[in-house]
Amino acid sequence: MNKDLEKISVFIQKHHVLSLATTNGEELSVCSLFYVYSEEKLTFVVASSEETLHVKHILHNATVAGNIVLETKTIGKIKGLQFRGNMHELHDKSLKKLYFKAFPYALAMIPKLWQIEVDYFKLTDNRLGFGKKIIYSRASL
């Protein structure tokens, strides 16, 4: 695995909530979602109802952006990830198992699962130097 992608994956695996931004071309939405991440498929798995504004948006425009942050007031410890990708209904059974293994209580709610296939990551990690950015793009493969 690419060393930059490995650093990004380590950061992602240490967290479980992401912020997701969507648009239908006219209005914007942002929400927070619990997630699991498949390093192999560069994919986040989230649960959300079709009644939510962000899901209504992705049914018209699957392109999404989001972030995951480490909350700290110490400048030298600032770390955060931005990502972009496409979100659609999840059909992959192995990814469904991954989600319910992480959040077994979610089974009781019978949630609709979605996947965000990421094509761009930007990790800021001040521990590596002030403003240090690690950028990974599928397009660069």
Description:
The protein is an alpha+beta fold and 141 residues long. It has one domain (3-140): Electron Transport, Fmn-binding Protein, Chain A (Pnp Oxidase, Chain A), CATH 2.30.110. The protein has helices at 3-13, 53-58, 93-102; strands spanning 17-23, 28-38, 43-47, 63-70, 79-89, 113-125, 133-137. The chain has a six-stranded antiparallel barrel. The termini are close together. The relative contact order is 0.21.
Q: What is the element layout, followed by pairings?
A:
Blueprint: H1 3-13, E1 17-23, E2 28-38, E3 43-47, H2 53-58, E4 63-70, E5 79-89, H3 93-102, E6 113-125, E7 133-137
Antiparallel strand pairs: 1-2, 1-4, 2-3, 3-6, 4-5, 5-6, 6-7
Quick summary:
Helix content is 19%, strand content 43%.
